Amino acid sequence: MKKWFKVGFSVLVIAFLIIPLAACNNEEVQTVKIAEVTHSIFYAPQYVALEKGFFEEEGLNVELTTTPGGDKVMTALLSDGADIGLVGSETSIYVSTQGSDDPVINFAQLTQTDGTFLVSRDKIDNFSWDQLKGSTFLGQRKGGMPQMVGEFVLKKHGIDPQEDLELIQNIDFANISSAFASGTGDFVQLFEPQASVFEQEGRGHIVASFGTESGHVPYTTFMAKESFINDNKEAVEKFTRAIYKAQQWVESNSAKDVAEAIQPHFSDTDIELIEMVVDRYKSQGSFATNPVLDEEEWNNLQDIMDEAGELPARVDHGTLVNTEIAESVME
């Protein structure tokens, strides 16, 4: 009887020790589901946050899913299939102007320029934008930020996209590079690393950067439904703080260091190519150095959308952007 009592008492003691510990862990660690619009080196700070344990330091377990297409990311957010979306800010404007009792709010900016490059089929030693006149230009999907920025830059250089060249926009994003490789177009608008891959293979030559030409815009931001932010304010703050840590780390470390940090997310890409792409994006200031989406950038975005004929209505910065969270984690 005494032996049974000792064993039973020991089990009870262990159980009482384990249960509070488990409860404590459940309170400290919160799972956050992210839907990213594509998987790209362009989002390097996000992968740095994952690999360097910045989310873990904040007590977050992040589940990342690639959800191709801005419309699909929005669907995931609105249906609670994802907590946070990483996508272009224009999508929040589209949703807002369609009418919503629970608007999608931009709370942390990740990239602050366009991430595409103009690639020429032929090598051009002294490129000028007017060389696109009379050419066939393989652009991006109509209504998306790459296409809108592309047309904005062309018009900035006195080129009418509808009159001065043959503009192709009916090819799916995933098939644009293969279409160019098979002979379609004299010029193409491409993301990295595909642009550099084509250059290495001799299939094309990078002649200009749309990001440099278009200036700062909230190209890719983290956003969530207003209700999620209100109900999970602490978790959103922790998430934003982790992103800010990663942004600062990327800013203060070399392209080689960043490439090595994010390589696990791009195991099929040579480390030298990852470094080249990171360096190109760092050099043109594509990675935001803090998560604040300011009003000037927001207005520049709407100007670009308006120029492309894709802005349904202007929306005030304060309506769809929350800067308080980003500003608080930077203090």
UniProtKB/TrEMBL annotation:
Gene3D superfamilies: Periplasmic binding protein-like II
Name of the protein this chain belongs to: ABC transporter substrate-binding protein
Residues of the signal peptide: 1-22
Subcellular location: Periplasm
Keyword Kinase: no
Record keywords, A-Z: Signal
Family membership: Belongs to the bacterial solute-binding protein SsuA/TauA family.
